[in-house]
Write a structure and sequence with these properties.
acetoin dehydrogenase (NAD+) activity, alpha+beta, Acyl_CoA_acyltransferase, 7 helices, globular, GNAT family N-acetyltransferase, Aminopeptidase, GNAT_dom, acyltransferase activity, transferring groups other than amino-acyl groups, 9-stranded mixed beta sheet
Length: 210
Amino acid sequence: MEHRKTYNAKEIKTPRGNIIIEGPISAQKLADLEFHKDLIAFRPPEQQKKALIEIAGLPEGRIIIARYRDIIVGYVTFVYPDPLERWSEGKMENLIELGAIEVIPEYRGTGTGKNLIMVSMMDDAMEDYIIITTEYYWHWDLKGTGLNVWEYRKVMEKMMNAGGLEWYATDDPEISSHPANCLMAKIGKRVDLDSVQKFDRLRFMNRFMY
């Protein structure tokens, strides 16, 4: 499968100044930009920047960033699911995962996260994919936001809805382990029926195990 990537950009006004949401960004451009010191949700900033550069270099990898001048203040990643996750078991070339989304505390509540998702979906090539995201409450910054599990889940759902992702049922044990966890997905307009059925089988793998 050919992984087409078309760059899109959008400027948004925030109380902290205007920021640019753009991507997919090349590995080279990422390397040239500064990574904000508060982007620490997944690993230390320098390590996370290195991980994003690697993703940007993958054929299917997509990084959309939020940038204040030359400083990255938020990003979202799209990449094939982790080989250890059930979502990779179907070996589907047209299934990609929204793997991480992060916005520094200073820009939360400004619509930055929502716009990162919206700009991601502005690329027509996204209609060729089933895009999934798995939300686990233990990844959420409940302490930093002061929200409870259900309030945070509502915020995440609203943000994903902005890009057309919707809640999907699954019997995945990790997702089923807590009612706030969820699978969300968007099935592109050009995804064939065979792929949709494959995705359904991945969502419900345990029903066939007797």
